[in-house]
């Protein structure tokens, strides 16, 4: 059993929790072929380490498993919800976790109080519609072990899944394993981590130290930006 590494420390920051009860007060942004019952959804928001990203918690399952990252409207072909969120002026990126949605805004000068109402309404209308969050053709990315993994890669993936990703997801983001070559672990940051000012600190002071602590074969960690 893996023991907790003392070198892995989470960045501390003040979190402000807010909540918004959204009623069915405006026409649905979707046009489903059936009539959805009118009801309210209690949506909470949580700050992330990235001031340009905000975590929305609708109080229900968003994804059954894994995470999904949509960096631009063109990548949202497999998600009706992501497409609706991208229609909101000022939304730059959308990220889905198991029970949360992280929105990244395009303009740092635009205040969240101007974007929140449309985001609240879009999320509420979508879940009231009964439509699936993802369609069948949705590509999935995760760090699940496979039969083709060697011992070192399997250990890296286990650490990511059990020790690192849950912590990062609490902050509205995720980290995806992209490869291991010549002692370097290649990772892709998603969600609030993508443009977070503290992402380099997270990689080097947190993730790299933990992987090196447990796996001597790891020489370092490198961030990759490919899809």
Automatic annotation (TrEMBL):
Keywords: Iron, Iron-sulfur, Metal-binding, Mitochondrion, Transit peptide. The keyword Iron applies. Pfam families: Nfu_N, NifU. It is found in: Mitochondrion. SUPFAM superfamilies: Fe-S cluster assembly (FSCA) domain-like, Hypothetical protein SAV1430. Its main location: mitochondrion. Residues 43-130 form the Scaffold protein Nfu/NifU N-terminal domain. GO terms for cellular component: mitochondrion. GO terms for molecular function: iron ion binding; iron-sulfur cluster binding. InterPro entries: FSCA_dom_sf, Nfu/NifU_N, Nfu/NifU_N_sf, NFU1-like, NIF_FeS_clus_asmbl_NifU_C. The keyword Iron applies. One of its GO terms (biological process) is iron-sulfur cluster assembly. Iron-sulfur cluster scaffold protein which can assemble [4Fe-4S] clusters and deliver them to target proteins. Monomer and homohexamer; the apo-NFU1 is a monomer, while the holo-NFU1 is a hexamer composed of a trimer of dimer that is probably linked by some 4Fe-4S cluster. Interacts with HIRA and EPM2A/laforin. Interacts with BOLA3. Interacts with HSPA9. Belongs to the NifU family. This is NFU1 iron-sulfur cluster scaffold homolog, mitochondrial. It comes from Callorhinchus milii. The lineage of its organism: Eukaryota, Metazoa, Chordata, Craniata, Vertebrata.
């Amino acid at each position: 059993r893996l023991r907790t590494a003392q070198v892995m420390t989470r960045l501390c920051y003040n979190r402000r929790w807010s909540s918004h009860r959204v009623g069915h007060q405006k026409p649905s942004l979707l046009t489903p072929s059936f009539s959805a019952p009118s009801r309210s959804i209690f949506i909470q928001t949580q700050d992330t380490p990235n001031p340009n990203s905000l975590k929305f918690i609708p109080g229900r399952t968003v994804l059954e498993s894994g995470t999904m990252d949509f960096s631009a409207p063109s990548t949202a072909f497999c998600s009706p919800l992501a497409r609706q969120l991208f229609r909101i002026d000022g939304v730059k990126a959308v990220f889905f976790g198991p029970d949360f949605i992280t929105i990244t805004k395009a303009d740092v000068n635009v205040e969240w109080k101007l974007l929140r109402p449309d985001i609240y309404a879009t999320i509420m209308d979508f879940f009231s519609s009964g439509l699936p969050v993802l369609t069948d053709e949705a590509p999935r990315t995760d760090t699940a072990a496979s039969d083709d993994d060697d011992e070192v890669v399997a250990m890296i993936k286990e650490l990511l899944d059990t020790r690192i990703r849950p912590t990062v997801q609490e902050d509205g983001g995720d980290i995806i394993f992209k490869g291991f070559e010549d002692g370097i672990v290649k990772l892709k940051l998603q969600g609030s981590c993508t443009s977070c000012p503290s992402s380099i600190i997270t990689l080097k002071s947190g993730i790299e130290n933990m992987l090196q602590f447990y796996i001597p074969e790891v020489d370092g960690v490198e961030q990759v930006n490919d899809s």
